[in-house]
Amino acid sequence: MSINKALVLSELDSILKSRHFRSRRVLRFFLHYVVTQTLADNAAKITQYTIAVEGLGKSADFNSAADPLIRIQAGRLRKLLEEYYTTEGRFNPIRIELATRGYHATFTHQTTQAVYQPITLEDIPSSLSQGPSIVCIPRTFVMDDASSWPFITRLTRDYVNILTHFNGCQVVFADEMRWQANTTVQQYNTDFALFLDLHAAPAKHYSLKCSLIHTPTEQVVWAQSFSLNQHDTSQASLQPIFKRIAHDTLGYEQGVAHHVWARHLLDSGKPIAAQHQVMLSLRQQLWERSPQAFLTSLQICEKRLAQAPNDVQAMIVYADYCRTDYLLKYQQIETLEERLAYVTDALLQLAPGNAYSHLYYALSCLLLEEHDMCLEAVQQAQAINPLDVHLNVLAGIIHLGLGQEQIGLPLIQQSIAISPFYPDWYHIPLSQLHYRQGRYLEARQEAQKIKLKHVWDTALHNMLLSPAKQTL
């Protein structure tokens, strides 16, 4: 099977920037050398000596027979790549490995054999579409237990309260009973357990170590550490931390919990429950990004709404499909503006406290050129859930569509800076804005950050040639 070199180089870049590799200087040089040499058809020339001298900068008198450096680092590299592809790179389209015999790189596609497996609806649908469920569990490993335990339980409860404004997931707070050695994550009957572990750190600081466990397999699928000041626990100081955790684990497009949950359901081979199939088909559409994948997911969503017309989550997904259809010109939704207006009116009646009800109403108003109502709605959406990165990006794009560059541009840029894991299409509106304002070099630089250009070519073309509202 042929491999696109641009995709391999994009995957290499993702690996080198990952948390597994970013501080491993020798392994970064090692991997970069063998990948680029393999792509240049020089695999036969890759030896311990060339890796050491050309890749790692060792002197020309390097003796591989006497120095086991390359053999040791090769073993570490194979192990670290395996760890990367069980966590951060689990759903990447390309997999890079080091050959077991020799030192050249190997490249394979990671697409599943059957992305769209048959989905069987249950006879009686649940009233609301659902995604993964998560229990948040506070733990303290600080000697000063009297102050650290109330601190971490309060922080965890605050985080859970924030997540009630997020879509497509069910989040609960573990009771305040201490975590015991014989306690298991299975007892909570959720898909995931998010541990928020408090540790002591120098200079009157805490270290917050978070880990997301997939309950059925007991695998750690995400982990991150944060520094906390014991004397500054204001919302302003905690919001960036909460935003990063929510984005990485439950983000609309990149959230690892959504991906792992969907893959596990598909791998189980069991019929998919009705309340899960809209969110599952959304994942499949995001993985594949093709007209056929979009049409399949759209039809599943429409069928669900025909059976459960008050399913708020399905309505939100459908509204986002309207945005996708408008942007990528799939032309699968007839009378798109009218349908979006109908869905958003229903959302505002059924779920007035949901940020996305107001966000997609703002989108509908923008398409209908009702700018005052659009601005009011997008501001309401941001006020309800300021920590949702995906929502903030869409809000930023809407502000750009209203001609408010000073508001929209920082929103998108700040969302990109939250985490190294974000959808590459976030750079499209930035590229468009630079292009229209004559900053062609900046426009090109933003466009070059889009990895899967074959997916977004239509969007880029349309947005560079069409009115401002086309950014949606």
From TrEMBL:
<protein>
    <recommendedName>
        <fullName>TolB amino-terminal domain-containing protein</fullName>
    </recommendedName>
</protein>
<dbReference type="InterPro" id="IPR011990">
    <property type="entry name" value="TPR-like_helical_dom_sf"/>
</dbReference>
